[in-house]
Structures are given as structure tokens and as C-alpha cells.
Design brief:
The complex is a heterodimer of chains A (247) and B (313). Chain A has one domain. Chain A is 75% helix and 0% strand. Chain A has 247 residues and is mostly helical. The two termini of chain A are 25 Å apart. Chain B is α/β, with parallel strands linked by helices and 313 residues long. Chain B folds into two domains: 221 residues, Rossmann fold, CATH 3.40.50; 68 residues, 2-Layer Sandwich (Alpha-Beta Plaits), CATH 3.30.70. In chain B, helix 3 packs across helix 4 and helix 5 runs parallel beside helix 6. The longest helix of chain B is centred in the middle third of the chain and has 16 residues. Classes of the chains: A mainly alpha (247), B alpha/beta (313). At the A-B interface, helix 1 and helix 6 of A face helix 2 and helix 3 of B.
Chain lengths: 247, 313
Amino acid sequence: MKFLVLLKHDIKHLISNQGNVFMFTIFPVVMVLLFGFLFSNMYKGTFVSAYDFYGVTMIFFTAMMGATVPANAFLEKTIKEGNTRIFYTPVSRVQIYLSKILACFIFISTLLIVDVIILSLLGIVNFGGISILHIILLLAAFVLFLILLSSAICVTIRSEEITNTIISNSMSVLALLSGIMFPIASLGEWADKLSNFSPLKWVLNSTFELIYNGGSPNYVLILVGLIALSIPLLFVVHKNYRPEDYI
Amino acid sequence: MRKKVVEINHLEKGYKENKAVNDLNFEVYEGEILGLLGPNGAGKSTTISILSTILKKDSGNIRILGKNLETDIAYIKAHMGIVPQDIAIYEDITAYRNVAFFASLYGVKKSELKSRVEGALEFVGLLDKKDDKPKTFSGGMKRRLNIACAIAHNPTILILDEPTVGIDPQSRNHILSSILKLKQAGTTVIYTTHYMEEVAEIADRIVIMDNGKKIAEGTVTELLEKYKNTRKYILHIDGVKEYDCTSIKTIKGIQKVVVKEDLVEISLDKNCDNFNEIISELVKKDLRIHHMETEEGNLEMIFLDLTGKKLRD
């Protein structure tokens, strides 16, 4: 019951941030429509339209940018002082950080899933019919991994600004490596090999395989891998989230 | 026999090589207001943080409401209210929602929430501001809301860590009278402050800490008793630092002479006041007194005598 009060409070805080809401509702849809329109000529004559390509990449790219949200949930200036009082209440330390992680997960994944469904229902983006369920599951696992990665950095560094700088820069590099901005392989074999380190590339490849091949041989591996990578990150949060550091 | 609600035995807490709390022992009795005094670095805040379960002790034993602080944290937390020194509220949600949120975390049921929240806000004089956001409040109003958030669940023990820092006299008086009202309602209060007059006004008993240890304990009357015959002269004299005060120490009734930068503090038995002799001694040395203060047995004097520091040092 107390956990639900806490979770509701954390979700309300995220919703009250208009920048966050814009980021996961209007931004990806506008980007899909904009890039879809601008690059439609490049995709003429192929079975993948520009809207289809950017529909998938922009949703996962926005999910990646969602890694900045936990810093807001844990450390934002306007809530930092109020959050310290929670430590005095009969709510456990574990419930406090789990509530923030879960609030971020629910907030980001719900909005992005709604984007996916709307883009699919309106026929703007092809999400592969029934494969959309697998894509949503992959998207949720990807969001969970990113939130835990960001939370682990956040509770270790304990500075919203520094955390956001690290996260934004790292995510930009990973996005660049994934090839969503331009074909990274055109830079040479070394660049192509390097791009394999971007989790964004893994999920994008798997998603395109799901849509256009009706299945992805690496799907389960990526899904389980993202969840498995999330576990040690949760352990880092558990170890480093100490009330005395916030008083 | 009075019931002990807080028992601290041989409490120790250190940071690297420094002992912030060193073999601390004291009790707090049901329904009393205990004033916890000490200069900066005395170990008050560390003690409060340990009592409020934010910090872990190194050793010692703490029992609150008959329960062990280590094993019954949830029970103890549910029965305590904490008013931290730094205002711990959300600036962007209304005063009502602030109090309601924390009351819910303390387990106040939905059916009772409205009356409890409004009761707490009325208690601190903020009911008419319940729909306003704290970012529009004055410092004093925020401090009062800070208290409301700690009392809506009707705690048995209320710990206030310097709740009147930097506020206007009106809010300060409101807070002090509120604490006395809580005491009348049966709440046990632990109150730390830098203002001696506040402790003298509201505390039933005082514990004075310095260097992590308890150095004195008792009621205001008990503590003053020891110093009731003491008078202190504070003489401001230019260049007195190099002055040899041995001759003054030999005057009858003199208890203590402390020479500082440009002043001499002379404590003496007021039944044996040889003020003229003191002045003669100073005149003999060609020293010119340009200002003089007199103090008689008060808490500030006790504190200074015990710790060698002013309370606000």
C-alpha cells in the first residue's frame, strides 16, 4: 500500500514535467513524420518506406534518450529536499529506489508503446502485424535496461547535471554507432565492427528482422541479454543508494 | 516512576579517525521536552541521524519505545516524527498534498487522511494556505509546513533539529507554542537548537554535548543551581592579551580568569564580590577598560563554562 503511494507520487512527478511528456509523445511522432517525408525519395522502389525505417529507429532512439529520466526522478532540484523526508518514514530503502525505477519504466514504456500503436493503427509505420507484440516486449526490455543503467550511474555519482552529461553523451555515441544517423559501415570495416557494441543496433536489427522476416534468430538472446544485464545494474543501485548520502 | 521512551547506552559513531559520538548515554522520558544542546561539531546531528535511522551506529545500544532500534526499525519509524534542520518538503505541490503524501507513507488511512492533514495544517497555522504551493511561502511558513509533515500521523516521539533557524520572531513563537501544545497532548519531544533562550523557555530537561560526549544533564533549575552564586564580569580592554592575570586570581572570591584577545572574563562568587579590588589591579597595570558587561547564572554562562565555546560557535 505504501509502495503504491510512493509509486503514484513518483509517476505524478514525471508526468508533471512537460519536457518529459513531450519527449515521449510528440517528439518521436514528429520525427517519424519529418524524416519519413524528407527521405521518402531515398526509399522509393524498396519494400521499406522511409516512414517504416524511421518509425522503428526513432522509437528506439527516443527510448534511449529516456535514460536521462531517472536522474530527474532521483535527483531533480525541486524534489530532492522532499525526497529526503521519505527516508524518515516507515518505507524501506529498497521500496524507495524500486518505486523510482518502476515509475520511470511505466512512464517511458507506456508512452512509447502508445506511440507504436498509434503509428501502426494509422498505417504510417509497418510494425509487422502480429510481430508488434514481440517488438513491444523488446522495447520494454530495452527501456528497463537503460533505466537501470542510468539509475546505477545516478545513485553512484549523485549529481543530476553530471549524470545527464554522461548519459546524453554516451547515448549519442551509441546512437551514432548504431547507424540510425548514417550508414556507419560506409566508414570502413572497423566502424562496422565497432557498431556491434551498440545495444541500439542489436534491438534495431532484431526489430527489422521481426517485421520483414517474420522472426529474428537473435530475438530471445537479445531479450534475455537485456534482462540479464539489468540484474547487476539493479545490484549497483541497491548497493549505492544510501539515505545518509542525501541528508 | 517515569517511563523511558528513549534509552541511549554507550553510543559510538566515528568518521574515519574522528569520533562524532563518543560513549554517549542519556534517556528521554515519556511526555517531556528534552533540549539537546551543543556547539557545532558536538555530535547532536549525528545523534539525531542515528535516532532517526538514517545513520548506523558503530556500537552501543538504543531502545526506543521499548524496542531495539536495529531490529524494530519499521515500528520505531512509524511512531516517530522527524523535523529535519533542512526543510524537507516538495516546493511544487500544495501544502495539503505535501502533508497528505507523508501521512500516507506513515500509514494514515484514507478515511482519516483529510481530517489528519487539515488538523496538522491548522496546528501550524497554515490551514488557510492548504491549496498554495510552498514555493510561494516565506521561510517561516515553510518551517511550519516542515513540522506539519512530521505530526500528521500523531507521532509518540517528535524530534526537531533546529526548527527555528533563520525565521521571523512571529513564526518562531508560533513554533515554540506549538511544541508546548504537543507536549500537553502527551508527545515526547527531543529538541536541538542554537538558541539558549528557547531551551530555557520550553525544555523540561537539558543534555549538553561537546566533542561527542554528554558533559551535563539536568533540568534548567538543576543546572543553574550550580552557578547560582556565580557572577561574571566581561571587561573589554585594549591590548590585554599580554596581560599577566595572576594577581587578579589571588583576590578573594575569584573562581576563574580567562584572558582573550581584547577582553578579560572574570568569574567570581557574588557573595564575595571584590569588584573594587579587581579594578584597582587593572588600573595599577595602566590598563584602560572601555566597556564592561555583567552576567549572572544563566544557561549561556553554564554552556560557556562547560564547553569553552559560545553556543553559536
